[in-house]
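Changelog-adjacent note: as of this version, every example in the card shows the full chain rather than a window. The one below runs 249 residues end to end.
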Amino acid sequence: MRRDKRYKRVPTQGRRKAVLLRLLLLGSLVTGLTACAKGGQLTPMGATLMGGRQGEDPAAQAKALPYATLVAHLQGNEALLVMAHRTGERGRDTYWQAGDRATLHLRDGLPASTAGFEATLLGRWHSAEPGPTGQYRVHAHWRDADGQEWQDEAVASLTCDAAQPLELPLTRLSLERCTERLDWVGSDTHSRGTFWREPGSERIWGGDMALWPHGPRLRWQVARPWWSDAEDTERDAGQSSRPDIVPSS
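Full-length structure tokens:
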């Protein structure tokens, strides 16, 4: 990856968050695999996490499994990821693991961090809801292949088109195509990401975006979702009781 001196370099003490994330992911993996073992045999979920079905088409794997799954493409590799852990308010944080133990963390359906890759996304988040101009801030914190950590932030804007049919690994849905444009302040570069969301519920079914400036692009699509209609009902009830909350775009 090309280094740019205008990136913000992260001091050593700022790395404690990454250490805690690795411990959390390791613990969830061990717990998940233990729960998957029955009589010395791995269930389909356990076999998938351990790479027991390598070489098979990810969509075919997802169809054969009753677990929440998504298909991801990163740096020329394609893999089926199985949800290993869910936490946060209304389960907004989900952790997905592949057969080689690489892990993707989604928050509200969008990439928030990774583990087990040559370069690692340590954190990606929005600082605020869009204001009157529709702009907001996106922050990225990553570690390159040499182990050096960097940070940058972008001024972002989002536009969404009318819903159109989209083929997904296990279904076909009418989804809005949303384009996020980012002007990175520290590196003085620009990038664009796309994600597809369901009208009304705003559930995100897939996306294609660079994880940080000049970083690798991640493409993913939900195969078997982890949410339910009951969760949408609870969310809508919570928003109607708190009129000060602005739904995310």
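Structural remarks: The radius of gyration is 18 Å.
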